[in-house]
Design brief:
Layout (H helix, E strand, L loop, with lengths): L12 H9 L5 H5 L3 H8 L3 H15 L6 H10 L4 E2 L4 H6 L4 E2 L3 E5 L6 H13 L10 E6 L6 H11 L1 H4 L3 H10 E5 L3 H9 L2 H6 L2 E7 L1 H8 L5 H25 L3 E5 L1 E4 L5 E2 L1 H5 L8 E4 L2 H5 L4 E7 L5 E7 L6 E8 L2 E4 L5 E2 L20 H8 L1
Parallel strand pairs: 3-7, 3-11, 4-5, 4-6, 6-7
Antiparallel strand pairs: 1-2, 8-9, 8-10, 11-12, 12-13, 13-14, 13-15
Helix pairs in contact: 3-4, 7-8, 11-14
Length: 373
């Protein structure tokens, strides 16, 4: 990726010092310069400049790899999947969320997306003996929904023997969860471009973005053609960076997504209409951000309501799992799978898979109309 820091390209310290002095910090900065500019900056000849360009280009270009090498790497790795602690879900996913990929959790408000994200943050910090990855997590919060108190509550209830009266373990947990509050699309994109050093220095084993949809839906309107194009371009850039980070550092990346309403002509309406349950006969609720984004994630889990207490998780997209559903509840120990309710369903395009939502109205529309007449 062009956002790779020059310090990670293998250039000599003398050359790095000269480039940094001219504010050339990434591969993109260097490759945007002409040969003459680099010659002047380095006070060298064309051969040295060409060697620098070549080394930088090779460093940020994707390397080809055979299927055998991929298979061998997966076999040698002890952490090819990140277990979610939902036993049956992990089974159909062949062990959990695939490491080195981008997974999405989408669903209506209050269905447990943030709860799921906090629980995964807890799990990744746990030692391998407890099913974790024994690493740190970078939690990018765009909605102000992260709760440190909820993290501690989950930890003490999910792993009572490990955390009970052991302040050292609790301090280790909280120190490993790095929360970034981001409020603009520009800030988020810049943060993603500069994550490599943090992943290395802080030993990050999981990145969570809660949520990917919040900022773009506030800053871009889908009713304006230019806005929609700019939004799509932004999402494509973010997806490319996330895929790169996941693959290069062999870590799972989890993003949460909101919902939207689609009507018969596939026009996307605002989420406020969908959350009220007024989608109508020709409309349906599905994950937000459209088809381009749905193709950018490797695994998509959809959350939906069954009863006021019970929810359902649907595997809507996965390279290894069939279309399956599992029921769960949200408890003090986090997201807990229920023994019954597992099954298969007839899946469709993950960008159009319907999601059940709660109705905000306690009575039917026809009844409200008669009261107003």
């Amino acid at each position: 990726m062009s956002c790779r820091k020059l310090k990670r390209t293998g250039l000599s310290s003398n050359i790095l010092e000269k480039l940094i002095r001219h504010n050339i910090l990434t591969c993109k900065d260097l490759l945007s310069c002409s040969q003459l500019e680099v010659i002047k900056i380095l006070s060298s000849g064309p051969t040295t400049a060409d060697d620098v360009f070549k080394k930088c280009s090779q460093s940020c270009s994707p390397r080809p790899i055979t299927a055998y090498d991929l298979w061998k790497k997966r076999c040698e790795s002890n952490h090819g999947f990140f277990a979610t602690s939902l036993k049956d879900l992990d089974v159909v996913l062949h062990g959990g969320l695939p490491v080195g990929t981008v997974s999405e959790i989408a669903g209506p408000s209050g269905c447990g997306k943030t709860q799921f994200s906090i629980m995964l943050s807890l799990l990744v910090t746990m030692p391998t003996s407890h099913g974790g990855l024994d690493g740190a997590v970078l939690y990018i919060d765009t909605e102000g929904a992260f709760s440190a108190e909820r993290l501690v509550e989950m930890a003490t209830n999910k792993f009572p023997d490990y955390f009970h009266n052991k302040s050292t373990n609790m301090s280790k947990l909280t120190d490993r969860v790095h929360v970034n509050v981001i409020q603009t699309c520009k800030h988020l994109l810049e943060r993603l471009k500069n994550l490599e050093e943090d992943i290395i220095s802080k030993k990050i084993k999981l990145i969570v973005i809660d949520s990917i949809a919040s900022l773009v839906r506030k800053e871009f309107s889908t009713t304006l053609g230019r806005n929609l194009t700019d939004r799509t371009n932004l999402l494509v850039q973010e997806a490319a960076i996330l895929k790169y980070l996941a693959e290069v550092f062999s870590i799972p990346i989890v993003v949460t997504n909101q919902i939207t309403t689609r009507f018969g002509n596939d026009n996307i309406q605002d989420e406020q209409a969908s959350s009220s349950g007024l989608e109508g006969e020709s409309g349906y609720v599905t994950a937000a951000l459209g088809n381009t984004w749905s193709h950018s994630v490797n695994t998509r889990l959809l959350l939906q309501y069954l009863t006021p207490v019970t929810r359902q998780v649907m595997v809507a997209k996965s390279p290894v799992a069939p279309f399956t559903t599992f029921t769960y509840t949200i408890e003090s120990a986090g997201v807990i799978q229920q023994d019954d309710g597992a099954g298969h369903y007839d899946g469709t395009d993950p960008g159009k898979q319907q999601i059940k939502v709660r109705s905000a109205l306690p009575f039917q529309i026809s009844q409200s109309s008669s009261l107003l007449s």
